[in-house]
Write a structure and sequence with these properties.
By secondary structure, this protein is an alpha/beta fold. The protein has four helices and five strands, in the order βββαβααβα. The protein has a five-stranded mixed sheet with strand order 3-2-1-4-5.
Length: 137
Amino acid sequence: MKIPHKAHVALVDGERFIVMRNTGPIFEPRLELVAEPDLIPTNYSAGVRHQDKVPEGFPTVSSDLDEFAHAAAAAEWLNGRALAGEIDQLVVVADPRTLGEMRRHFHKELQARIAGELDKNVTWTTPEAIAQVIAAA
């Protein structure tokens, strides 16, 4: 996948949210940290549809709700930056569940600025490894 020069890259999972920027060319990206916002998840209605009874031994529903609320908070943060004109192009990289929840909360203005999406969990790896994963997709 191409990462446009100066495009923002949002890395999200159920616990962590990192915003980076490509300072390299489109086919040889170099990612630099822009922000690691401290989100306050408030949208717990995000995971309401996921409140089925969970068998013993599986993750609790409350942890799922926390993850979905975090995804919604990340989407809202990105929406705010897009509406303020601070994000021109964006690549979103998130695990499949988080990415699916985030899509439900993307503002149309942010959707228009998304240059690509990748359903991978890479929030705990190095910027170089992240750039390679995205470029290889």
